[in-house]
Amino acid sequence: MTSTPREVFLRLVHGVADGKLDELPELYAEQTDVRHPMSDTAPLRSRNELRTHFVVPPGATMPERRPVDIVVHETVDDEVIVAEFAYEFLHEDSITRVPCVFVMRVRDGVIVESRDYIDPIRRSAAARQR
Fold it and tell me: Is residue 51 within 8 Å of 121, Cβ to Cβ?
């Protein structure tokens, strides 16, 4: 049975939080269109580009995070969801909350298109607090 857009989204955000980055490219179609409109990064157009995107450089550490306050809105288009959530980045003595909204199209159980809106100021602050 093919996964629903909601199920694919949840695997994505929990996979990021659990550090299972090597598994995430399989959630995307071979040819896809992933954009981060609030960032200056180029669109990601293929599963191979996503493999590179999800690599943590040697010696780098990924800050501990967890997705919270997840609300998934289904649309009249069965392939499209709008997901609101936040990542909470956990530091020794504080938590940095980074609001996110993803607009995602999932076809045949894989992401074919996504617009990932992530607060760039709070994301940067979370990275600096490692």
Answer: no
Distance of CA 39 to the CA centre of its chain: 14
What's the whole-model pTM score?
A: 0.91
- Residue 107: strand pairing partners: 110
Domains of the chain: 5-128 (3.10.450.50)
The answer to whether residue 51 scores a pLDDT higher than 80 is yes
Q: What is the pLDDT of residues 95-113, one digit of tens each?
A: 889 999 999 999 999 999 9
